[in-house]
Amino acid sequence: MTPENNLAKLNIILPPAPKPLGVYKPLLLDGKYCYVSGHGTVQTDGSLIMGRIGQDLTPEEGKLAARQVGLAILATLKSNLGTLNRVKRVIKVLGMVNCVPEFQKHPFIINGCSELFAEIWGEENGIGVRSAVGMGSLPDNIPVEVEALFELI
Fold it and tell me: Which of 92, 100, 108, 141 could pair covalently with 149 via S-S, beta carbons 3.0-4.6 A apart?
């Protein structure tokens, strides 16, 4: 199964590819690598999931927000590459969690994005190296931001 087949099989509807809100590119191609800038919680209607985990959102809601970030990344890849089939594998994911200082389950939250990538590219190619860290705040009070590096075919 190709990534595009997996996307269709899962009945996933991608949000619109987010436009940069600052001076940066949403992604940068360098040879066989695709660097994707930090993405937020863009939903299919273009709105953002907002709130701090441990204060406004439960960990389960945070995990769903991280999945939504993964969907926004897929939208950017598809918009710029034409197809997800050009992506061979996930190399690295950096997940940032907007949470209260006492929160300690950052990896659980970022699993929302990582599990999505594993569904799209399979466990062998969809799981890369990863960091999951807590932040005092994130832009627009989004609960999760993720940046990623992919290897292209």
Answer: 92
pTM above 0.90, yes or no: yes
Beta bridge partners of 93: 130, 148
Q: How many CB atoms lie within 10 A of CB 89?
A: 16
Give DSSP secondary structure letters for 84-114.
Answer: GGGEEEEEEEEEEEEB-TT---HHHHHHHHH
Residue 86 falls within a domain, yes or no? yes
Closest to 132 (Cα-Cα) out of 102, 93, 103:
93
Contact predicate 3/70, CB 8 Å: no
pLDDT exceeds cutoff 90 at 7:
yes
User: Could you tell me the residue range of the domain that residue 114 belongs to?
Assistant: 3-12+27-152
Contact by Cβ (8 Å): 118, 67: no
